[in-house]
Amino acid sequence: MTKWSEHAWETIQPIYNKIVEHPFITELKEGTLPEEKFAYYIQQDALYLANFGKVLSGIASKLSDAEHIQDFLGFSTGTIMVEKALHKTFIQSFSVNISTEKSPSCMLYTNYLQTQLAAHPLEVAIAAVLPCFWIYKEVGDYILATQTATNNKYQTWIDTYGGEEFANSVTKAIEISDYIALKTTKDIQKQMLDAFTTASKMEWLFWDSAYQLESWRI
Ligand SMILES: Cc1ncc(CO)c(N)n1
Ligand SMILES: Cc1ncsc1CCO
């Protein structure tokens, strides 16, 4: 029987392909991405991760299996560790201005995840956060496997998401998603798939918004 996660990944293939073809990713891979665009991304991602960590601990508080609770609390702590380690390094070296104003796309994505947690079945909230893990792992692995540039100034970012440690978290998150999908109804499985797809589109949007240096139109 096909696992929910296999079906889900297959469903978002066209979105994933658009992500790895996006100039943000192709230029990040070669180290040619303008620092201004990477700095914009890092600044918005700090705001994103702070919210994402809260959503993950919110999911933990709604779970019942002790192992799963521990895993989600670990993921939540992981986002804070990544935020501190990666973001503070880049924020210093690229002299990023610390802003507290979310871009439209960052606000869309963070609010979407909060809404899934607050007003939808737990299974759906779990499916909504899965692309954040899975797409980043795939993008990290893809860059590591295909990059030709040496001395890439974005290597720390690449190694964070292409590394084994992150892969372990991603494997756990996929396994938990499959476990809960198996125990729920067809209808909720479909809602999980829709949330997974929507969040995957927002992953594309997040990189695109950084590449475009998106701003509020007012
Ligand atoms: C927008 C976004 N999605 C996913 C991750 C990785 O969890 C991240 N750092 N930022
Ligand atoms: C999903 C995710 N993104 C950054 S850290 C983290 C959890 C890893 O444990």
Automatic annotation (TrEMBL):
GO terms for cellular component: cytosol. GO terms for biological process: thiamine biosynthetic process. Its EC number is 3.5.99.2. Residues 9-212 form the Thiaminase-2/PQQC domain. GO terms for molecular function: thiaminase activity. Keywords: Hydrolase, Thiamine biosynthesis. Pathway: Cofactor biosynthesis; thiamine diphosphate biosynthesis. It is an enzyme of class 3 (hydrolase). Belongs to the TenA family. Catalyzes an amino-pyrimidine hydrolysis reaction at the C5' of the pyrimidine moiety of thiamine compounds, a reaction that is part of a thiamine salvage pathway. This is Aminopyrimidine aminohydrolase. It comes from Neptunitalea chrysea. The lineage of its organism: Bacteria, Pseudomonadati, Bacteroidota, Flavobacteriia, Flavobacteriales.
